[in-house]
Amino acid sequence: MGSSANIFDQLLTDLCDVLAKATYGTGADDVYGQPAQNYKTQLTAWPCRVTTMTGGREFMVGKEFTKNTFKVFMRLPEETDSGVPFQMNPHNWLYITTANGVPLPKPYYLNITAVNDPSLLGHHLECIAEEVIP
Known about the structure:
There is one protein chain. By secondary structure, the chain is mostly beta strands. It has one domain. Helix content is about 5%, strand content about 65%. The protein contains one helix and six strands; from the N terminus they run αββββββ. The chain has a six-stranded antiparallel β-barrel. It is globular. The mean pLDDT is about 75.
């Protein structure tokens, strides 16, 4: 029988890119008149598991948007390509590209609102993330 780490890793059937907001772009604004934003990819095709949280949907009738909340499980590398320790935080974004091994027709950008290390031992991270649908 394999170790629990191997079982956990087998459950990471989704892939995501981890992005950080780099700068505000110059030139054209977005459709809302806000400066365009640029992102820097910190991790590519990183194994994760995306789950929809129960009760994670909010609707605003007056503003007409929906907010879906997800919990994303993942392991993180100890350091980036430059040798600097990687720090996942609410300033990062997740770009979910594959679900259960199947490429998504429309990748999801998820805004991370919380990052938890439930065991406090660095076994894995649980990220609470939101997708706002206008």
